[in-house]
Design brief:
The protein is of the alpha/beta class and 227 residues long. The protein contains 5 helices and 15 strands. The strands form 3 sheets. The chain has a 6-stranded mixed beta sheet, with no helix packed on it. Strands 6-8-10-12-13 form a 5-stranded mixed beta sheet, with no helix packed on it. Helix 2 (65-76) links the parallel strand 3 (52-57) and strand 4. Helix 1 runs parallel beside helix 2. The termini are far apart.
Amino acid sequence: MNKRSQQNVLIKGTKDGLTLHLDDACSFSELIRELETKLSLNYRFQENDPLLAVKVHIGNRYLTDAQKEEIKELIRKKKKLVVDEIVSNVMTYDEAKQWKDEHQIETVAKVIRSGQVFEVPGDLLLIGDVNPGGKVVAGGNVYIMGTLKGIAHAGAHGNSRAVIAASVMKPSQLRISELVSHAPEEYTNEGHGMECAFIDNDEHIVVEKLHVLKKQRPNLNRLEGGL
């Protein structure tokens, strides 16, 4: 094995287990040979040794499912090693499309009436009202240029950093990720103008004046100034 090939696989121990950095420029067969050699030379386990989690970083290399399975199987041959994750910088077409959809702002001008559900994969900018019994759902943030009287669900796919903002906040229910908040009586009866809802550090949904959003979500720059 030449000097270069010996640098194709770097193994580092961490408090959580092992991290493998696999070179993304060499051939896959060369990578597999070196990985097998280094694991055989450096890791000999006893029966009572604890399991070690392994995180594999493959950089800019694209691996098929079969190649990923080959790497996992090679590591699993060392009885005490368990593959925790394979991390890649490369996105598949489907992954890229999903990312685009989830980060896209969909603008629609309509009224969401009772019994209607309007859902988008990314951010929603609704120019109109959500009437009682109506519901809007977004994978990202919900911005309503109108009165929110029904249900708004932001971060529907698990994004707890998502926010809900409305010109007039009179919701029957607010949902962000998995958290649910029923609006207090003062909101359903009176309503409040230009407010936003988000999950605070105590894992509660809170409703504040819109200007608070800049402090709570400093990276939220796309639409916060437009409501």
